[in-house]
Design brief:
The chain has 270 residues and is mostly beta strands. It has a single domain (32-267), classed as Thrombin, subunit H. It has helices at 69-72, 220-224, 263-267; strands at residues 37-44, 47-59, 62-67, 83-89, 98-104, 106-107, 110-111, 113-118, 121-130, 161-166, 180-186, 199-203, 214-218, 231-241, 255-260. Strands 5-4-1-2-3-9-8 form a 7-stranded antiparallel β-sheet. The radius of gyration is 23 Å and the shape is globular. The protein starts with 36 loop residues before the first strand and ends with a helix.
Length: 270
């Protein structure tokens, strides 16, 4: 850039400098956790159905979208979408830039997602493998890996604080396309299958649209190492849990089911 002209001692009227083009807004540092979750819209062709939450999981260079199975199909409520759409950031510098990415749920008459069951029955977790080459080149996302899974229950005490990252009722920062975080605590013995099912309980205020959200705990050791995603992935939020009660006298329990995240290892097997 050429040097600016030198000032002269001659008295001349002051002329303000020409306005420079507005710089692109620069986002402040954002916790990488917010780039690991994505908003999901379900559709029957072009007809919008519901909103939900998903997150990214990577294993052996294969990338997956994880959500609740009932987001993709739920016979009791007659919910049968044939495609979903997720929202992706396309600039880490300008969070206002995003794009929708559509995923078909059926191909050649077969479902494109993986689901599973165990001794307790069907598991409310589903995974769809993403074609990296089809994603926008500028897509900004963070993915959990097997290293983020909790190896055992010994370090997770009942009452421990966790976060649920999602889009309750579809609500989020619409300007920057970021999810919101709800505080929760572990409400049952972690590592124990509650009622024989493959989930544990959390105590948190949740809403429709949070289904499929990651349930996470801060990993202090990973934060000290400045890892890209310093969080432990404990579970996949499924739904609120309630009991038969007097609707006039008794409030909702405020408890939720979170399926153990180690199921992702089974679902992502080749």
């Amino acid at each position: 850039m050429p040097a600016p002209p030198q000032a002269t001692p001659v008295a001349t009227p002051t002329v303000p400098p020409a306005a420079s083009p507005a710089a692109s807004p620069i986002a402040p540092p954002i916790d990488s956790l917010l780039f690991a979750a994505t908003r999901i819209g379900t559709f029957e062709h072009q007809r919008a159905l519901t909103n939900a939450t998903g997150f990214f999981f990577e294993r052996d260079e294969r990338l997956y979208l994880v959500t609740s199975r009932h987001v993709l199909i739920d016979a009791p409520s007659e919910h049968f979408p044939n495609r979903i759409e997720i929202e992706l950031h396309t600039s880490e510098r300008d969070l206002g830039q995003s794009t929708g990415f559509s995923l078909l749920l059926y191909r050649d008459g077969k479902s494109t997602w993986h689901q599973g069951s165990d001794s307790g029955g069907d598991i409310d977790v589903a995974m769809i493998e993403l074609d990296r080459s089809a994603l926008p080149e500028s897509a900004v996302l963070r993915a959990f890996t097997p290293q983020h899974l909790q190896p055992g229950p010994e370090a997770i005490e009942v009452g421990s604080s966790v976060l649920v990252v999602g889009f309750p009722l579809g609500f989020h920062d619409q300007m920057h396309h970021l999810p919101v975080v709800r505080q929760a605590v572990i409400a049952s013995a972690f590592g124990i299958r509650f009622q024989g099912q493959g989930y544990f309980l959390t105590d948190a205020r949740t809403h429709r649209g949070t289904s499929g959200a990651p349930v996470v705990m801060r990993d202090a050791a990973a934060a000290e190492r400045h890892d890209a995603l310093p969080w432990k992935l404990l579970g996949v939020h499924s739904a609120r849990l309630d009991v038969s009660r007097d609707l006039e006298q008794d409030e909702s329990l405020g408890l939720n089911c979170a399926w153990y995240a180690d199921m992702l290892m089974t679902l992502s097997e080749p």
